[in-house]
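Let's sit down with a protein and look at its sequence and fold side by side. Go ahead whenever you are ready, and we will take it from there.
>
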Amino acid sequence: MDARFDRALLRAIQETLMEEWDPIGVKGIPEASDEYDSQALRIYSYLNSGWSADVIAVYLQETENIDMGLTEVRCDSCLAVARRLLEIWRKHNAA
């Protein structure tokens, strides 16, 4: 990570994934609090690179379908979460 890496922002991304995305239903299970950490790191990098909410939503959907093997289509949920992540990123970086 570069010098501009912000742990508070990463934590906000992790919390959003757990609270609003959570495709495998582990929210509220303390032992699973790190379940989406790898996705959070990637999303942090993608947001830092200027990716749009639409592209991040595709990443979330592909993660569900390919990496997690979930076949249920949740595109609307993924886009809503991606928009929320972008909003968090913008608010944090405007401060």
About this structure: Residues 76 and 88 are 19 Å apart (CA to CA). The chain is about 65% helix and 0% strand. The chain has a mean pLDDT of 89.
